[in-house]
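Worked example 2:
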Amino acid sequence: MITNYLKIAWRNLWKNKTTSFINITGLSVGMAAAVLIMLWVQNEMSFDNYHPDANRIYNLTAKIPDFEKAWENTPLLLADAAKKEVPEIEKITKCFVNNWPVFNINGNLFFEKKCAYVDEEWFNLFHYEFIEGNNALFNQNPFSIILTASEAKKYFNTHSALGSIIRIDSIAYQVAGVVADAPSNSSFQFNAFIPVAAWLSNAIQRENDMDWSNYNYLTFIKLTPESTPSVTAAKLTNIIRKSKEEAETIGLTPLLKMHFETKVEYSSFLQGNMNIIYVFSIVAFLLLLIACINYVNLATAKSSLRAKEVSVRKIVGAKRSHLFFQFITEYVLVSMLSLVTTLLLIQLCLPFFNTITEKHFVLPFDSLKMWGIISITLVVALLLNSIYPSVLLSSFNPLNVFRGRTLLKFKDVYLRKGLVVLQFAVSVVLIASTFIIYRQMQFIQGSNPGYNRSQVLDFAVPPNVRGKDRMHLIETMKEELLTQSSVQSVTAANQPLVNIGSWCTECVDWNGRNPDFKPRVAQLATDEDCLATMQLHMAEGRWFEKNRGIDRHSFILNETAVRELKLKQPIIGHDFIFKGDTGQIIGVVKDFSYKSFREKCGAVVIFNRNDWFTHVMVRIAPKNIAAGIAAVENTWKKHISNMPIEYKFLDDTFNELYKEDRKSASLILIFALIAVSLSALGLFGLAAFTAEQRTKEIGIRKVLGATVVNIIGLLSKDFIILVSVAVIVATPVAWWAMNVWLQNFAYRINIVWWIFAGTGALAVLIALLTVSFQAIKAAMANPVKSLRTE
């Protein structure tokens, strides 16, 4: 029986080559897109779940009262105190990641940007696969190091690096182990590990970290099975409050939820977005649905051609169940052919998909997860594709067929039209969303941030240069750079203006302040050249001046600070205290965007303290980029020969703030194109079938004088109406979805009507071009041959 089903199924597929091609191609593309999306979704949803007892591991956070976000860092001293005083903690480990050591390997210098200083419990708490060495070797020597396999290959051209020497400053570190690279679903994308004892061997650093007020360490705990996280958090908070008068509240973020934690300020880890996962999961289903709609529509549209076959089979004894499984077999055959094509498409598209998502997905044929995703996709397609057509085709009454009665019910015809509307509605929503996301990105790129970031190069002074040495070094480099014709101006600051991450609360005071009012302010330490270099604009007063000693105790506020602090007029000359330093406000600078456009411009206090400076920003003269970079590199090498320079242009730093948004926009654009292509493919098949069914009608009309344009209009009208209805249905959905997305930005575009009008016109044009091909072909046919067609 099954063999017979397969023979008949193959015969029907071969007989209807065009329909089979449309079904297999559409289903393959839809399944490939769905599988790729679900690979990414599965990777995001499985972050950090590979660690043993991951459900009992937590990251400690610290939350300031009356502030909605928390820090993911805690004091160094908390770990040791918690280990002694909180019995619910089974294991505890700490990690320091805010440092870029310079590796000296055989005289070659490298910045290691993914290095973590960890304690002896790190490799006991988290899962790492040791290729060489072990954790015991690492813990025996504070000046040891563990590399990932890719880093060992990079530095030593071999995965066998055990015992090799890497110099950091003047200290030799010995490679004590090599571990496998972290999987793509790991938050801990570190390439090198150094004992935290090595970091604390520096007396200055140790003194700094032994202060309960310095929150510099990531702390992770593993709780006992019977413990309660809220009770543990309360005990940890009590430990902090015994050491500080006004202490933060300690919270516990589950490791399995850390990737999607949104209430943490400045996370050290790659953060996911659960809303994006929901969106792309829906898109994956919709793409698969569109591909399946093509099959359902073509199967139901061509049902009249198979009515006699079904009727004859029933008359000679076939049961409805036999016919049902016959049609199911045809779909299974289409699915198997589509599966082979799907796997080929995935393999071809994976490199491109990896580039966009910045992941390293592979197609492991021995992976149960991969086959699970493909199997789920196939089952969903089976349910969407086969049930309704099989029930419909097996339901024909033989007597009605031979009497020439209408085969399809009124509701069946309208269901097919509804499915066409659904296909194009999804396409219109995706196209409109792409346009709006693109316009928002253009708005961000083209908006005036209140300063000029173009052609400004930023580099940081090495962290091991401290105190007066750092101040002298920065001043010397500034003076030398200003002698270069390729350099327009130079300024120093504690951070680039593009993304100011330094802020404080309870650090400002003034006459008349309400004691209960403790505003949060961003803090920017910079010099007298910042105004000209960054091309800021003053609202009133003046900027800092060179060799004017009083300016070391003077302050400049932005316009938002004046409003939020509710300072009394006159502002200029107003007494002001910042971090215990008493001075006067000498100027008000116009607001400038110092954060992502997702956040509103807040209060900024600007002060002139060269002991805070860590960054140098260089404005390069127009058309002198290469010479300006060379001048910076030469100046660096002259003064810091034992360390490579790391610089960025502020435009690049700004663009990185929106990298995830651009990535999402690129993916949505690709999926929109796929959706449109699949919808057009299905429309092409329906148009071909309609033209075939109306061959005699078209011949008679041409004999009676109908023109080619009349015939094209006749065949295209119904499809254009359906696509127009799809545009009407999709417009409010797209407006609502994009309005929700734009709420993530404090500064955003307005959604204008012409975006939807243009999207609708594009959808109608695509449908018209698709249908016109078949319409023109039918209209140009010889009417005599058309009338002879049986």
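The chain is about 50% helix and 15% strand. The longest strand covers residues 171-179.
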